[in-house]
Amino acid sequence: MRSLLMRNPVVVGASWIGAYLLITVLPLLILLLYPPTPTNGRGFWIEFSVALGFVGLAMMALQFALTARLNKVEASYGIDLILQFHRYISLVAFIFILVHPLMLFVTDPETLQLLNVFEAPWRARFAVLATLALIALVATSIWRQQLKIPYEPWRIAHGILAVSAIGFGLAHALGVSYYLSLFWKVVIWTGLALTALWLLIYVRLVKPWFMLRKPYLVEEVRPERGNVWSLVLRPRGHEGIHFQPGQFAWITLQISPFRMREHPFSMASSAEDTERLEFGIKAVGDFTNTVKDVPPGTKAFLDGPYGVFTTDRYENTVGFVFIAGGIGITPIMSMLVTLAERKDDRPLILIYANKTWEDVTYREEIEDLKEKLDLQVVHVLREPPEDWSGETGYVDKEMLKRYIPKRAATRNYFICAVPKMMDQVEKALYELEVPVTHVHMEHYNLV
To answer: pLDDT at residue 445 above 70?
Structure first.
């Protein structure tokens, strides 16, 4: 019974949420069960501010677990959802920690003298250093592009600032000692900080070391329609990775994986062939514009697979509806070719939006798949040619209503496109009474 429950993604997902909440409120539970000896001058607002500080510090430590790409956690939610949660919860932790000293200053103005780092005790200096590190961490994350900070230096600085904020924050709490007077409380908080540090070491050193032992070689870089390039990799000296169709991996090209200059791309090839991986990459940025120039034989390293955007999780569904925009076809292409190799006979619908007919990536391959699958393809063009008789404009409610089954709840829907299109399609499907549990989306931007 227990093994069956743990295989249920809803149960597993709920258990991870429970674990996160438990660790977050652990400081409050400890204080409630084992409160410090009361002293004069500590009113409600002081105690409340301290509680916010402890909860914020615990949330900051948990950020390392959210970004460590732990497979068991990622498999419950998808890494895009986890990283979005990481961004938003960082702001919540930042507010909690910032409110902690501000509330103390308002409640007891004499504590303002602790800001004089030249005369204040070390516990106050640690608090100031932790706060400054946290402010720098949040500011450089929110305004990285405006500040024109390259991704690789920012990522290194991000880790250093995060460790500094937690380390100085813990040193401040230990220095105050009032709330951590018992030895076992010190052990708990030190263990939490050391776990966060280990997760950082795991991501920065251990995982790249494993990647280094399983290199790939670039077999070819093939041009596709829509300014897309197919990057074809073969494993060297190992069997490759086993993935589910629709998943993605982080790719490091030409340099050591320790350099932390990696980029996430979806597999476009069949999950049945692990000896030859294809990634669809649209040339839209500094790195993606250089992919076409990568010579065959170049070393590559993969961290993956990741993602829950896959048909393999819904084997009992009657059929699938795929809705793609532009390069969003990549993970969907992996699902389609995998279903074709498995000789899947369920009804499939692909609604594929592009600007022009020449922008339709994998156009010929999609036509070939119609011979192997029960596949209906609907192309939607914003700028169609003069002789075009198909759909035009944008994928909206009326268009979807013409193609999705009348019993919409019998299908699972996979959407991958730019955020604006995904929002519009998600809203339209909701209005067409498609259950939210049957709608699955993949986001482009993960970094």
So the answer is: no
Please state, in angstroms and as integers, the Cα–Cα distance from residue 203 to each residue in 69, 191, 252, 283, 329, following that order: 8, 18, 14, 28, 30
Q: Which residues contact 355 (CB under 8 A, 6 or more apart)?
A: 326, 381, 382, 383
Amino acid in position 305: P
Quote the CA–CA distance of 181 and 175 in Å, as a whole number.
10
List the structure tokens of 49. Answer: 């501010």
Q: What whole-number distance in Å separates Cα of residue 303 and Cα of residue 55?
A: 32
Could you give the CA distance from residue 338 to residue 344 in angstroms, rounded to a whole number? 9
Q: Tell me the pLDDT tens digit for each residue of 176-189.
A: 877 777 677 778 88
**Contact (Cβ atoms closer than 8 angstroms) between residue 326 and residue 417:** yes
Amino acid letter, 303? D
Span 38-64, pLDDT tens digits: 555 567 788 888 888 888 888 888 888
Cβ neighbours of residue 347 closer than 8 Å, sequence gap 6 or more: 318, 319, 374, 376
The strand ranges marked E within 22-144 are none
DSSP string, 159-217: HHHHHHHHHHHHHHHHHH-STT-SHHHHHHHHHHHHHHHHHHHIIIIIHHHHHHTS-EE
Residue intervals of the chain classified under CATH 3.40.50.80 are 313-442
Mode of pairing for the β-strands spanning 411-416 and 439-442? parallel
Query: What is the Cα–Cα distance from 164 to 161, expressed in whole angstroms?
Result: 5
Six token digits for residue 251: 């790719």
Q: Which fold has domain 216-306?
A: Elongation Factor Tu (Ef-tu); domain 3 (2.40.30)
Span 149-166, pLDDT tens digits: 887 788 888 888 988 998
Of 213, 414, 220, 235, residue with least CA distance to 310 = 414
In contact, 170 and 197? CB cutoff 8 Å: no
May I ask the CATH architecture of the domain 313-442?
A: 3-Layer(aba) Sandwich (3.40)
Amino acid at 404: I
Q: How far apart are the C-alpha atoms of 289 and 3, rounded to whole Å?
A: 47
Could you tell me the two tokens for 342? Answer: 């498995």
